[in-house]
Design goal:
Layout: H1 3-11, H2 16-20, H3 28-43, E1 45-50, H4 57-72, E2 76-80, H5 83-101, E3 107-109, H6 119-124, H7 130-145, H8 159-169, H9 188-198, E4 201-205, H10 206-214, E5 224-227, H11 233-241, E6 243-246, H12 247-257, H13 269-277, H14 284-314, E7 329-333, H15 336-340, H16 345-368, H17 376-403, E8 409-415, E9 422-428, H18 432-439, E10 445-450, H19 460-465, E11 469-470, E12 473-474, E13 477-480, H20 487-490, E14 491-496, H21 502-516, E15 521-525, H22 528-541, E16 548-550, H23 557-566, E17 571-575, E18 591-594, H24 605-616, H25 621-638, E19 649-653, H26 657-660, H27 664-669, E20 676-678, H28 681-700
Parallel strand pairs: 1-10, 1-13, 2-4, 2-5, 3-4, 5-10, 14-19, 14-20, 15-17, 15-18, 16-17, 18-19
Antiparallel strand pairs: 6-9, 7-8, 8-9, 11-12
Helix pairs in contact: 1-3, 1-4, 3-4, 4-5, 7-8, 10-11, 12-14, 12-17, 13-17, 14-16, 16-17, 21-22, 21-28, 24-25
Length: about 700
Amino acid sequence: MGLEAQALAALKPGGALARYWPLYEERHAQVELARDVARLLETGGILMAEAPTGVGKSVAYLLPAVLHAVESHERIVVATCTKSLQDQLFERDLPAVLEALGVSVPIARLKGKANYLCTRLLEMAEPRDDDEQEAVDALQQWAAGDPYGDLDRFEAPDAEVWRRVRPRVAADPQSCSGAVCRRGRECFWARARRAAGEARITVVNHALLARAAEAEGLLPEYDVLIVDEAHRLEGVLLSQLERSVSRHRIEELLRQTGTLKGGKRGSGLLSRVRSLALPLLLGDSTRDRVHGDLERLSGRADEARADIDKLFTQVAPGADGKGGSPYGVRKRFRSQQELLGRDLNALQVVLEHCDVFADALRRAAGAVAIAEAGTPGEELQAELELLSARWTFVRDELMTLTEAVDPEWVYWRSQSPKSDVAELRGAPVTVGPFARQQLLARSRVAVLTSATLSSAGDFGWTAERLGLARDGRATCETASYPSPFPLAQQMRAYVYDGGPDEAAAVSEVVAQLARSAVRNMLVLFTSHERLKRARTKLASLLPRGRLLMAQDVDGPPGLLVERFRKARGAVLLGVQSLWEGVDFPGETLEMLVVAKLPFSVPDDPIVEARGERLRELGQDPFRADAVPEAVVRFRQGVGRLIRRSDDAGVLVVCDQRLATASYRGPFRASLPVEPELWRDARALAAEAARFLTERDEAAREGV
């Protein structure tokens, strides 16, 4: 029996899944997706598969993947964007499919190194107060019995204290290596990599997948790649490829070297070399030379800090006299001349500092290398070599960013609104060639799946971003699967035209909705500034006693999401991360307000550079790029509302462009119902409340 037939047999009524799950129901879209994945596993190629919420796409791709792993012995990698879904796949979905099928194959979960406990750092941890001591004690007890050392699995006594402690005990991706730490089989990260090397199905996240595309050997070779939440893959790849250098980054190198401000000696590497390595060196001349090098580095540190400040003051976006923005500044530059003018002295001095620190640390490592194996000098030598390499790497990145010569990259300088710290940054204009050549071409089969991969049914935009299109058309297989939910009955959509003041319009309609019904409401913004303005207005407009929470104002997203799920009649204001990846089934979310259609900021350096590229090709950047990107984001936001077959909800979009703009078509096509235009917030709220009440009554009557 072929793979496709095996998958269909397992999914049919009375099949393996129905016998395992008593409440299992056959879903046509799930069966079709599983069929397509199974066929691709047999023939090879790339498939972009759009499967909306409720299809059950995890089982649809895991089922044929498991059957294929049993028969073919090929290695399969499954990648998700969020670590929560990664954990769900590894701990729940994948074991359930294996058990339902009655088969066994080695499986593994692998995250980035910083997600694992470093036992060496845990032993060296110095708690700053009693609360941190309690967290460290609990962590030590947990680590003694946990086989994974995955810090996401640790249940800390106090979440806020744990946020401070975690970075100090997590494995450091940059400074941790087998040469520095000789713990070998005690290392949780090393164990996880060994398990991945032995597994036939490994579950990873997008960030690790992106790093593995650049770093040889980070992941074992694989034959099949399945990417869930694939609409986020491009952003993760772009983040991985982006390069940046800031004053803070170089200050961190100075801190790790062990040189503090004011000539003070820190507890870093130089201090340990003085106390542990110098006594091991043979010959007075060697000790004197190394000691002299270390003292010169300590004496040079404050001079380096002053020169670094001078350079980053020179390149700050507001340094040209045009002033800055209270919300931060990003300013593109296209050449070294545009960035620095004719005065390159500050740059040359900082580059020289980087060379001096790198060379001195490398010479010290060479001297310490004569220490006998097993002594402290062996680990110190590795640390010195690693830190020397990091100084060289920063120097090279600073040189690359300031030269700004690669025509395939865009370069800019940015500045935080709360500090005078400037940062130089650069990124490729598009990650398409990298995604295609370094990632998707590495496997015989690639399945890219998500609830949102198309704009008005067209996969061309997403395919272009991932290097899978030619002339705006996808060059790989594409498929869309229908929603199993009766969305037209479950949802109503409204456009509210409340005038040009976004915060005022949103606040008015949210307040009216809150007065009309005690339902949980999520309000999505595209700007932190407008969110804060709306929160200020809503504090006085909402009915007394209603819970009002704003992302990053009243707490971090994760904490607010949990409070929101437990509340009734709460209002949660969110940006960015709350547009996607959060699940609010049933009564946890019945009203969704979108403040504005989610277009990218046009003066973003990457958006601007992409626009220039499209104009060179004779295309309109707005129609070809901005609109489809906004449609995909809009669909993600709207997808927060209906999560189950018995959910009901209302969508209010406070952007009259959805009703009047010439480009409204793709946005409206993404909705299961035609949106109605309203200008009276009270009447809109009454209509929304009426719909929800009718749905409640129908549910009680079993209609």
